[in-house]
């Protein structure tokens, strides 16, 4: 009894809060042999446990660890670690006493104890370079760190789980080194940097896993920029990891496609580190510091980032950029981001009221801290971490423009630089340094306990006692001592913050220092501004990039640019034209013919300047197909290709390839090339709208032909058949059927098949469905070539009907149930791919339906009028004025087409000229037959043609092939100006375009109401 009391007293003296419970745990059979072995070696465990932050919890977790290791291969390692008072035991017990979360992780994986054993010859985890951590993380998921674009071999949940386990094992090593450091305040920067480095490694590994899961992401470069403490290499154990994503397309990929792929990749990256899974999430990945915050796109190109910060960024956003650093993904692209935005950061102080805005922002942050938390908030409260950080950052921003020696991303290093430069006294810097380390160390110990993001100092005595012991600082042992020290630190930090951050000289210095960046007027800059460049400085940078050096290419550029700058200025987008020309020139590099052609050709350079400064669509397309520049010297190269010639080329290209994807990409390549030819002709005014619409439609025809060919072969092979069980046909509908496609059009189609004699009907149907599905998938999938969405919604029964039918099924359906709207849709039906004989049979089937003898029944006319009225009332997008909607608005495409199609249904049985799929051809036939007077036909044609040209101009000008966007006449003056120029109007006539459209639409509506509604 006396011995038990004595032992309890000893344990209480050693710091155990529940000595009796501790004694029982020490005697537990699972732990007893380790206790006895340590006692025998002269290194008793109770004394060692008494040195940690929470001896009771450390002992409990140690008992659980011993139980978990029992009977496994981990027992010897645990016995070795606990046997003597060496570094490994001190690390293990320190971790168990300070971090319940890491203790639980060790119990779950007892083998991780081996990580705490010293490895002779290996550096401390705190001494590893960022490159070492990146390599370690990438190798863990099977990626090659030396690859230009590392891709993991471990994918899916396995890859995610591995990178998370790798991160936590490294975090355990860092925490162990931190908790046993002889001087934790001195080692704090190394600890914070090490955490940031393993975070960067985890992000790189996550990118590698995401790329493995998303092979199509090879088409995009993705850089992950660390912001805040991540960028400054001063991270906490657990906190949001602030990032910004930058993307750029690889050669042959559009910017829109790169953004789409980059968004998928960045989303997958976030899931890999933050989503729920078999292994716990690491930390929230916060991308809210991106332009426009949560409301902005997740990824942007470098040019988009630059444009945002040049135009719309607020003062605080430049301050946030101070710490931006490439941490994962394409580091070269990340560095390009930093290089592009850094000048804006260091000149942001020139913005009006910059200093006052920064000071006001600090006040707002402080005011938003709940009153109940103000005294316990380590980060945002008065005298907290933000006081030190904002002080350092404001001084850097005010003085760093002219003094590059004070631009460190890290708070403590920046503080030392400011002191060395005389911007803050050495005594004040030393005090802020010491107090900042204290606050950050306390934050670390606070978060380590549960590995939860918190900056609130607890109020209960037990937690304060644990924190005080975990700090292991003189005078900070016990709840009262910790609170006293914290109050002193915060008081002194606040005093220095108010003295420096709000000093009156800062705003004055910011205003006066603008003289340091003033320049004498530059003739080139003045000329560029005078002739219409919105960003002369940016233009000069592009010019310099193109003309600097002594190479032959630079010499030719010096001859070309003085003239081309004027040609660019003749377009509505001179800055974009020059930037696109720079990108194109850099892409072409030393290609021998490129600059020679521009210099020696009679018109190629001027044509190129006009294209790049007028059409974002063409500029982007030429950037992905730079050999198209050679077309500009030869009108024959720009002439439309016949469908027969394109079909022959398709067969030749596909026959040279064996891979399914490559074969369909050949068809999609021909479509992309056809779209570019049409667009160049549109911008240069080489033909009318019918020319470009036919070229776009031919390009879609070729894509469908190529996809059908591949889909049939694939479906037959997958079914194990010796040949196709059916004949197959793709019927073009809608604008495709009318050969009136725009740059934003989908391909409306019907799928038809006809089983061969003796074929199993069910097998034939399954195979036909696989063929139809294959066509849609092959043309719709993402890839290096632009997708062509294939829409079969005009089939019998609409989207509720089968995707494909036999010819007999079509005949039965149309005989029994054909609706008036289906007759109307069939007016544009045109066989486009597949068996020619089946195409003729289909046309013979539907001709009586779309060209009915005797015209359309009155009840069918009423039904079409009812549907048209419903379309007008229900389908016009909310918030879009009817006068500006080019398709569904009054007098728009829908009015003209429904009017013409109703008249076709009523008269085509008697007037052969009306048996055409084209709107303008049918309108001409109506005029010639005397059904529509010439004046009224002209009004309908004028509105239809103008609407079609404007829709194409919107896509050509903006570069965004979105049907929803293309259907609305722009409001924004700059965009409207581009559209007006593409339609053929002179500079400054954008309002004339609006008036022209409103007048044409109003007149067309009057005619449509008279003819359609009678």
From TrEMBL:
GO terms for cellular component: cytosol. Pfam families: GlnD_UR_UTase, GlnE. GO terms for molecular function: [glutamate-ammonia-ligase] adenylyltransferase activity; ATP binding; ligase activity. The keyword Ligase applies. InterPro entries: GlnE, GlnE_rpt_dom, NT_sf, PII_UdlTrfase/GS_AdlTrfase. One of its GO terms (biological process) is regulation of glutamine family amino acid metabolic process. Gene3D superfamilies: 1.20.120.1510, Beta Polymerase, domain 2 (3.30.460.10), Nucleotidyltransferases domain 2 (1.20.120.330). The keyword Acyltransferase does not apply. It comes from the Bacteria. Residues 359-501, 881-1011 form the PII-uridylyltransferase/Glutamine-synthetase adenylyltransferase domain. Keywords: ATP-binding, Ligase, Magnesium, Multifunctional enzyme, Nucleotide-binding, Nucleotidyltransferase, Transferase. Residues 91-335, 606-843 form the Glutamate-ammonia ligase adenylyltransferase repeated domain. PANTHER family: BIFUNCTIONAL GLUTAMINE SYNTHETASE ADENYLYLTRANSFERASE_ADENYLYL-REMOVING ENZYME, GLUTAMINE SYNTHETASE ADENYLYLTRANSFERASE. This is Glutamate-ammonia-ligase adenylyltransferase.
């Amino acid at each position: 009894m006396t011995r038990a009391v004595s032992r309890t007293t000893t344990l209480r003296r050693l710091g155990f809060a529940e000595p009796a419970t501790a004694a029982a745990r020490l005697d537990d059979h699972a732990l007893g042999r380790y206790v006895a072995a340590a006692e025998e070696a002269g290194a008793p465990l109770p004394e060692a446990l008494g040195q940690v932050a929470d001896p009771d919890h450390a002992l409990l977790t140690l008992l659980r660890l011993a139980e978990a290791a029992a009977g496994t291969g981990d027992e010897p390692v645990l016995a070795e670690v606990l046997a003597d008072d060496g570094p490994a035991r001190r690390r293990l017990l320190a971790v168990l006493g300070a971090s319940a979360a890491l203790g639980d992780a060790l119990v779950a994986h007892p083998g991780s104890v081996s990580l705490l054993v010293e490895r002779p010859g290996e550096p401390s985890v705190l001494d590893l370079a960022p490159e070492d951590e990146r390599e370690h993380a990438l190798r863990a998921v099977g990626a090659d760190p030396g690859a230009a674009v590392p891709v993991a071999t471990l994918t899916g949940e396995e890859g995610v789980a591995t990178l998370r386990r790798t991160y936590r094992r490294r975090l355990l090593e860092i925490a162990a080194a931190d908790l046993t450091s002889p001087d934790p305040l001195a080692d704090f920067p190394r600890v914070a940097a090490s955490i940031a480095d393993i975070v960067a490694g985890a992000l790189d590994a996550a990118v590698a896993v995401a790329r493995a899961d998303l092979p199509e992401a090879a088409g995009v470069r993705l850089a992950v920029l660390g912001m805040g403490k991540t960028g400054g290499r001063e991270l906490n154990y657990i906190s949001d990891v602030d990032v910004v994503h930058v993307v750029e397309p690889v050669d042959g990929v559009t910017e829109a496609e790169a953004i789409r792929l980059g968004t998928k990749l960045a989303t997958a990256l976030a899931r890999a580190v933050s989503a729920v899974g078999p292994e716990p999430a690491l930390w929230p990945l916060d991308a809210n510091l991106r332009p426009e915050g949560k409301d902005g796109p997740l990824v942007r190109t470098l040019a988009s980032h630059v444009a945002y910060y040049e135009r719309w960024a607020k003062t605080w956003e430049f301050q946030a950029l101070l710490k931006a650093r490439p941490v994962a993904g394409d580091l070269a692209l990340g560095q390009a981001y930093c290089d592009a935005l850094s000048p804006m950061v260091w000149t942001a102080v020139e913005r009006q009221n910059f200093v006052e805005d920064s000071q006001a922002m600090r006040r707002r942050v402080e005011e938003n801290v709940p009153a109940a938390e103000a005294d316990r908030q380590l980060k945002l409260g008065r005298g907290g971490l933000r006081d030190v950080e904002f002080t350092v950052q404001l001084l850097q921003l005010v003085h760093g423009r002219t003094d590059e020696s004070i631009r460190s991303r890290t708070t403590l290093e920046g503080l030392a630089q400011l002191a060395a430069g005389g911007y803050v006294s050495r005594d004040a810097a030393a005090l802020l340094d010491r107090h900042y380390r204290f606050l950050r160390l306390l934050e670390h110990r606070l978060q380590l306990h549960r590995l939860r993001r918190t900056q609130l100092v607890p109020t209960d005595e037990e937690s304060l006692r644990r924190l005080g012991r975990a700090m292991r600082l003189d005078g900070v042992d016990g709840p009262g001592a910790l609170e006293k020290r914290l109050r002193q630190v915060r008081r002194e930090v606040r005093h220095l913050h108010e003295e420096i951050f709000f000093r009156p000289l800062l705003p004055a210095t910011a205003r006066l220092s603008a003289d340091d960046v003033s320049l004498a007027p530059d003739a080139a800059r003045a000329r560029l501004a005078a002739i219409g460049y919105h960003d002369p400085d940016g233009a000069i940078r592009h010019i310099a990039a193109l003309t600097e050096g002594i190479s032959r290419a630079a010499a030719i550029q010096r001859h070309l640019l003085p003239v081309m700058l004027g040609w660019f200025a003749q377009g509505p987008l001179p800055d974009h034209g020059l930037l696109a020309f720079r990108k194109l020139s850099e892409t072409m590099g030393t290609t021998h013919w490129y600059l020679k052609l521009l210099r020696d050709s009679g018109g190629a350079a001027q044509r190129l300047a006009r294209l790049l400064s007028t059409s974002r669509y063409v500029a982007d397309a030429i950037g992905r197909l730079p050999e198209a520049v050679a077309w500009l010297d030869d009108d024959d190269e720009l002439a439309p290709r016949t469908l027969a010639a394109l079909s022959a080329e398709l067969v030749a290209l596909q026959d040279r390839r064996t891979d399914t994807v490559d074969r369909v990409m050949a068809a999609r390549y021909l479509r992309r090339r056809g779209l570019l030819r049409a667009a160049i002709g549109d911008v240069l005014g080489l033909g009318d709208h019918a020319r470009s619409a036919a070229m776009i439609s031919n390009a879609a025809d070729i894509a469908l032909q190529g996809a059908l060919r591949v889909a049939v072969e694939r479906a037959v092979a997958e079914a194990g058949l010796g040949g196709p069980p059916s004949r197959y046909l793709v019927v073009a509908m809608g604008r495709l059927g009318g050969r009136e496609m725009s740059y934003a059009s989908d391909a409306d189609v019907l799928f038809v098949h006809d089983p061969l004699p003796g074929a199993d009907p069910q097998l034939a149907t399954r195979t036909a469905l696989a063929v139809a599905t294959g066509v849609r998938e092959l043309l719709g999938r993402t890839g290096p070539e632009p997708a062509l969405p294939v829409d079969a919604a005009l089939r019998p029964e609409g989207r509720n009907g089968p995707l494909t039918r036999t010819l007999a099924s079509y005949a039965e359906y149309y005989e029994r149930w054909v609706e008036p709207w289906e007759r109307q849709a069939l007016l544009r039906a045109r066989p486009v791919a597949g068996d020619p004989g089946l195409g003729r049979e289909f046309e013979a089937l539907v001709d009586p339906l779309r060209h009915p003898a005797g015209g359309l029944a009155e009840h069918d006319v009423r039904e079409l009028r009812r549907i048209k009225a419903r379309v007008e009332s229900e389908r016009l997008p909310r918030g879009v004025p009817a006068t500006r909607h080019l398709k569904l608005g009054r007098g728009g495409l829908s009015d003209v087409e429904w009017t013409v199609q109703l008249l076709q249904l009523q008269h085509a049985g008697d007037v052969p000229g009306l048996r055409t799929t084209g709107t303008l051809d049918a309108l001409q036939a109506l005029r010639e037959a005397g059904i529509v007077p010439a004046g009224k036909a002209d009004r309908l044609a004028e509105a239809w043609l103008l609407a079609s040209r404007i829709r194409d101009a919107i896509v050509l000008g903006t570069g965004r092939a979105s049907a929803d966007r293309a259907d609305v006449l722009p409001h924004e003056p700059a965009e409207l100006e581009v559209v007006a120029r593409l339609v053929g109007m002179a500079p400054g006539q954008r309002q004339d375009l609006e008036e022209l459209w409103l007048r044409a639409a109003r007149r067309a509506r009057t005619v449509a109401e008279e003819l359609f509604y009678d």
